[in-house]
Amino acid sequence: MNIEERNTRLELLNSLLTTPHRQLDAVGAVHLEMLERDPIFYGHLAVWYQQNGRVRDHKEVFVANLLASPLTEHREAGFVLLQKLPPYQVSRVVDFMKRHIGKTPRSTRTAVTRYLRGREANPRAFDGAVLRARKHLKHLYATLHIRPSARADRVLFDDEPPEGSRPWVVKQLAKTDDAGAQARLIAEHRLPYPVAVGALDEVSAPVLAALVHVMSPQEVINNLKSLEARGALEHAPLEELILGKLEEAESDRRVSAYKAKVAAEATAAGAKTRERLDRVTERQVAAQGSIKRPTGLLVDKSSSMSDALEVGKRLAALISGITDSELYVYAFDTAPYRVQARGTTLAAWEEAFRNLNAGGATSVGAPVEAMRLRKQAVDQFVIVTDEGENTSPYLAQAYRNYCETLRRTPDVVIVRVGMASNRCTSSLQGERVRVDTWDFAGDYYALPNLVPLLSRPSRLELMLEILDTPLPERN
C-alpha cells in the first residue's frame, strides 16, 4: 500500500466525520466518489461503519450504494445489512436509491421482500413495527409493489387489526378514561410513548409511570423535554424511574452520546438529572475507544474564534474522559495559554476556559514552541483553528523544531472552524507531515466521530482494521 493510496483512503474516511441531518445530496456525492475511486475499500468501510459509526445518514447511504453496486459481493453485503435496519431506515434506503442513485435493482426488491416477510412471520414484532413506523412500512409495500400478507393487509391498509394485537390495544386505550386501565394496557403491551400519548386526551401520573417503565433509555432521553412538560420531573417517584433509565443509558450501546448532552442543555431539570445526563455522555464517548497516545490539544482564541473556544472545551472534555496518557491543552493567539481543568467533565473544562476570550492576532506555532521548550512530548496534535495564522512562530517551522528537539513526529489533526483557509495544512504538507483535516459545521453531535481517528496508534492501523472487516454473505 503506497503513500498515495493511504492518503486517498484517509481522505475518504475523513469525509465521514460529519452529521448531515438528512441533507443526503452532499452525502450521496461524497459516497459516490468513494465508491468510484476505491470500490474494494468502500465495501469494507461500509461494513466497518455499520459496526463502529454513529451517523445514521451515512449508514443508510452505505447500504443503498452496496445494494446498487455492480459488484456481487457488495450487493450480498447490502442484502445482509438491510435486514438489520429498523423500518424507517429501510424506507430511507429505498427512497435514496430511487431519487439519488436512479435505480432499485431486482435484488433490492428481493432484499426488502425478505425483510417484510420476516417481520410478517412474527406477529408481535410486526405489530411493534407498525406502532413505531406505520407510514414507512406502508411505503415499502407500495413503492416496491410488494403484496402484504392477509394479516399485514388488515393491520396496515384496512386499519382492522385482529383482536388482541397491539394496534387493536391502542384502539382500546383510546376508548377508556380509566387511568388504571390505561396504565395496565401500556405496561402489558409495551405501547410506545408517542403512540400512547397520541391516543389519550389526558396523561395521568400512573400512565406516565407505565410509559417510562416500558421506554428504552434512548426513548427517555429523546422524550425528556416532553416528560418534563407533563410534570414527570416534579413527581418524586417518576423522577426516580427516569433517573434509573438514565443509569441504564450509560451502558446501552444504542444510546447516542451527544443526544444526552443536548437533552441536558434543553431541559430545566434539577441537578441530579443533569448530572446523570452528563454521565451518559461521558460513558458513551468512552465506550467508543480509549486514547493511548500522548495528545496536545491546541485551541485558537484569536479574533473571531469564539466558536473555536467552544469546540475546544468540548474536545478537551471528550479527550480527557477517554485518554490513558498525557493531555496538554493550550489556548493561543500570539501567545500560548496553558489550560488545566479540575476534572474531566464538560463543566470542569468550561470552568477552565472561563476567562479566555477571543481576540488578537494568530500564531498557531506558539503553543507548539511552548511545548518544545517545556519538553512536553506528544504523538499527536489536535488543533482547533481557522488556519489563519499571521504571526510567527508559524506552525510548520515550530513543528520542525519540535520534532528535532524531542525526536518525535506527531500526527496532526486540524479541526477547522469558521471561514477557514488551508494555510496551515498546506505548510505542513510541504514538510511531508501527515495531516488530517475536519471541517466543523457547528454540529456537536459529530465531535465523537473524531474518536476513531484519535484512538488508533496510527492512521494506517485504522485503515488495516477497516480492510480486515469481512463482508457478510447472504444465507
Key traits:
475 residues, alpha/beta, Rossmann fold, 3 domains, six-stranded mixed beta sheet, 6 strands, 59% helix, globular, VWA domain-containing protein, vWFA_dom_sf, TROVE_dom_sf
Structural class: alpha/beta
Mean pLDDT comes to: 88
Distance between the termini: 33 Å
Number of strands: 6
Radius of gyration: 25 Å
Main β-sheet description: 6 strands, mixed
Note poorly predicted spans.
1-6
Order of strands, widest sheet: 3-2-1-4-5-6
- Helix content estimate: 55-70%
CATH topology-level fold name of the largest domain: Rossmann fold
CATH C-level class of the largest domain: Alpha Beta
Organism: Persicimonas caeni
Protein name: VWA domain-containing protein
What would you note in describing this structure?
This protein has helices spanning 3-14, 24-37, 39-52, 56-68, 72-82, 87-101, 106-120, 123-143, 150-156, 166-175, 179-189, 193-199, 205-214, 217-222, 224-229, 236-249, 257-266, 271-286, 306-322, 346-352, 365-373, 395-406, 423-430, 451-455, 459-467; strands spanning 295-300, 327-332, 336-339, 380-385, 411-416, 435-439. With 475 residues, it is an alpha/beta fold. The chain has three domains: 3-156; 170-286, no CATH class; 295-456, von Willebrand factor, type A domain (Rossmann fold), CATH 3.40.50. A hairpin with a 3-residue loop joins β2 and β3. The radius of gyration is 25 Å and the shape is globular.
